[in-house]
Write a structure and sequence with these properties.
By secondary structure, this protein is α/β, with parallel strands linked by helices. The protein folds into 3 domains: 61 residues, Transferase, Pyrimidine Nucleoside Phosphorylase, Chain C (Transferase, Pyrimidine Nucleoside Phosphorylase, Chain A, domain 3), CATH 1.20.970; 249 residues, Pyrimidine Nucleoside Phosphorylase, Chain A, domain 2; 86 residues, Pyrimidine nucleoside phosphorylase-like, C-terminal domain (Aldehyde Oxidoreductase, domain 3). 46% of the residues lie in helices and 15% in strands. Strands 1-4-5-13 form a 4-stranded mixed sheet, sandwiched between helices. A 4-stranded antiparallel sheet has the order 6-9-11-7, with helices on both faces. Strands 10-8-12 form a 3-stranded antiparallel sheet. Helix 2 packs across helix 8, helix 4 crosses helix 10 and helix 16 runs antiparallel to helix 17. The mean pLDDT is 95. Bound molecules: uracil. Uracil binds next to helix 9.
Length: 436
């Protein structure tokens, strides 16, 4: 079918046949579909939506636009988790080695920061020597030997998504449930997974700010993933405050290594990490119940096995051999580290997590435009959570800044992100579970 006829069908609200979707995505990958045609298609989908069958066909066509990995040589469940993005969400850094320590293979394709949210890939890039975009051979070797490898999308995996995503980014067509669904899942399917758990965030620091929007995306993701043959379930989790007490790049890696080595575990972060891990172990058939999965995860934390798998992954991908023992000296440190105080005493009632993400960008820890270089050392730590009492003895956060001027700008943004008053009710970090 001619590309313009295909676009007209969607524009007029008619159903698209799977074979036509596959042909159009083939053209997107080869370049025979122009940028203008891809943008018109994205806008037609944005406005008209897609049926579940169309979304499954789109996801499968995007998966098949590049290499689809196969892990048949590994006699282990091949699993992954994916978060829709938030602030202080470093769960992947801990959960991948925890699952590896329990006998899973975790080939995790992660992304860079998007908007106000942090990206796992940017965080890992703060480890000296870590190759976050290796060739497929090294990726396979590290997954085989360390049990997990967290890397970025390579040119081989779902290239149609790479092209369409870049076009959506500049044509006002990002926030479309079927397009987000196909984008996320095509990469996960290309990674050759057997089971997937999704962490859909909702709240002030999430893309899907309302519970209704989060539920709509979750139901689409779970239905399309299972429709495409990937056993998937999802948790909707609270992002009305940063998940970890740190937000940035090196500071979140330090927070993750403190977690794995047992030096410090933020309670909300721990709950989400364990809940997602237990769900995956249940899906993969390694745990008979959620309770059993939780106990298994706690065990690989207390034995130090999960931390050893992180070390094996990091050194397998070029990072320091003694990272675990000396991570504070290996990771970059900002020259200015000072507290930001609240302007009055009180209890934290509301946190604009998005504004805290923007403060990290203001410090240089995120991008304003795609070509920006990230300052891995900067960020926020010791973030006060909801119900914390702040005042003369307890700051809102510690700011890690490159210089005094950026410290002052970030301090004003952090103060503006907090509201103080009477103690609020705090919602559970894990709100609901949807899926298989
Ligand atoms: N993450 C993705 O990979 N794709 C989207 O469309 C949105 C978030």
């Amino acid at each position: 079918m001619l590309a313009q006829e295909f676009i007209r069908r969607k524009r007029d609200g008619k159903a698209l046949a799977p074979a036509d979707i596959a042909e159009f995505i083939g053209g997107l990958t080869s370049g025979s579909v122009s940028e203008g045609q891809a943008a018109a298609f994205a806008m037609a989908v944005f406005l008209r939506g897609m049926s579940r069958d169309e979304a499954v066909a789109l996801t499968e066509a995007m998966r098949d636009s590049g290499t689809v990995l196969d892990w048949k040589d590994l006699d282990r469940p091949v699993v992954d988790k994916h978060s829709t993005g938030g602030v202080g969400d470093n769960v992947s850094l801990m959960l991948a080695p925890m699952l590896a320590a329990l006998g899973c293979a975790v080939p995790m394709i992660s992304g860079r920061g998007l908007g106000h949210t942090g990206g796992t890939l940017d965080k890992l890039d703060s480890i000296p020597g870590y190759v976050s975009q290796p060739g497929l051979d090294l990726f396979r070797k590290v997954v085989r030997e360390a049990g997990c490898a967290v890397i970025g999308q390579t040119a081989d995996l779902a290239p149609a998504d790479k092209r369409l995503y870049a076009i959506r980014d500049v044509t006002g067509t990002v926030e479309s449930v079927p397009l987000i669904t196909a984008s996320i899942l095509s990469k996960k399917l290309a990674a050759g997974l057997g089971q997937l758990v999704l962490d859909v965030k909702t709240g002030t620091g999430a893309f899907m700010a309302t519970p209704e929007a989060a539920r709509e995306l979750t139901e689409s993701l779970v239905a399309v993933a299972n429709g495409a043959g990937l056993k998937t379930s999802a948790l909707i989790t609270d992002m009305n405050e940063p998940l970890a007490s740190a937000a940035g790049n090196a500071v979140e890696v330090i927070n993750a290594l403190d977690y794995l080595t047992g030096a410090k575990r933020d309670p909300r972060l721990h709950e989400v990490t364990i809940a997602l891990g237990a769900e995956l172990l249940r899906l993969a058939g390694l745990a008979g119940s959620e309770a059993e999965g939780r106990a298994m995860l706690e065990q690989v934390l207390s034995s130090g096995k999960a931390a050893e798998h992180f070390q094996a992954m990091a050194s397998g991908l070029g990072g320091p051999k003694d990272l675990l023992a000396k991570f504070r000296s290996h990771l970059p440190k900002a020259p200015v580290i000072r507290p930001v105080m609240a302007s009055e005493e009180g209890v934290v009632t509301l946190i604009d997590a998005r504004a805290l993400g923007l403060a990290v960008i203001e410090l240089g820890g995120g991008r304003r435009v795609a070509s920006d270089r990230i300052d891995h050392a900067v960020g926020l730590t010791e973030l006060a959570g909801k119900t914390a009492s702040v005042g003369r003895d307890r700051p809102l956060a510690l700011i890690h800044a490159r210089d005094e001027a950026s410290f002052a700008r970030a301090a004003a943004m952090v103060r503006g992100a907090y509201r103080l008053g009477e103690a609020p009710p705090v919602s559970s970090p894990v709100l609901t579970r949807i899926g298989a």
